[in-house]
Amino acid sequence: MNKNIIAVAIGALGFVLGLGFLGNAIKNRNKSENTISVTGLGSKQFTADLITWSGSFSKNNVDLKSAYDELAMDRKVINDYLTSKGIKQNEIVFSSVDIQKQFRSYNDSNGNYVQGEFSGYNLTQNVSIESKEVGKIENLSRNITEIINRGIEFTSSSPSYFYTKLATVKQEMIASATKDAKERAEKIAENSGSSLGNLKKATMGVIQITAPNSNEDYSYGGTFNTSSKEKEASITIKLEYEVN
């Protein structure tokens, strides 16, 4: 009889403890679910303050020394032209000379490729400029046909545009995105009759830099447009708050 009473008592105690644990579990679960997650956006438009531009020129000759001497003459003409346009000498960088042997090739009667006899050397050199005088280099890149008119086989690339104060812009956007996210969270809490509690988590997205009003796609690792002088940067901040 006593054993039965003890068993019933133990069972009742276990039932009560189980209810207590279940109640705490439900309470903790509801507490973890009682949060708001919002994403804020920060953006800023700015103009590039650094430009890079490059071009290449080449010479062909069966004699390597002659080809190199001719290329050196072209290099001097290009350098003098650039400095005459107000480009500083320390902004002009010539690469090493790339030398390629050329061969006459043809397809035989069976359609097989045949490398024929040596036909000469092709020497190519690149010239590049990096400058904060964006407008001046832009004009130079547009009027580079003046070099071609001097008998130089010159190929020009499109300029690339950069911004040297990007770190400051990023800080401003983070502040703006955080403020935007918090205001959204406060509005959601207010509309639901609650108030914001502690900030539980903050996650920052990657910076995306595109041309303004463009249809460029955002990239998972971040987009960095260098083809446009005018730029628009954006960043997202995700905030998770407790709700009271």
Brief synopsis:
This protein is an alpha+beta fold. It has five helices and ten strands, in the order αββαβββααββαβββ. 14% of the residues are buried.
What are the SSEs and their pairings?
Blueprint: H1 2-33, E1 35-47, E2 50-61, H2 64-84, E3 92-94, E4 98-107, E5 113-131, H3 134-142, H4 145-148, E6 154-156, E7 160-162, H5 166-191, E8 196-204, E9 208-210, E10 230-243
Antiparallel strand pairs: 1-10, 2-5, 2-6, 2-7, 3-5, 4-5, 8-10, 9-10
Could you characterize what this model shows?
The protein is of the alpha+beta class. It folds into three domains: 1-30; 34-47 and 164-243, Protein of unknown function (DUF541), domain 1 (Translation Initiation Factor IF3); 51-160, Alpha-Beta Plaits (2-Layer Sandwich). Helix content is 38%, strand content 36%. It contains five helices and ten strands. It has helices spanning 2-33, 64-84, 134-142, 145-148, 166-191, and strands at residues 35-47, 50-61, 92-94, 98-107, 113-131, 154-156, 160-162, 196-204, 208-210, 230-243. Strands 2, 3, 4, 5, 6 and 7 form a six-stranded antiparallel sheet that branches. The longest helix has 32 residues, at 2-33. The two termini are 52 Å apart. 14% of the residues are buried. This is SIMPL domain-containing protein.
Order of helices and strands: HEEHEEEHHEEHEEE
Low-pLDDT parts are: 1-32
What is the CATH topology of the largest domain? Alpha-Beta Plaits
What is the second-level CATH architecture of the largest domain? 2-Layer Sandwich
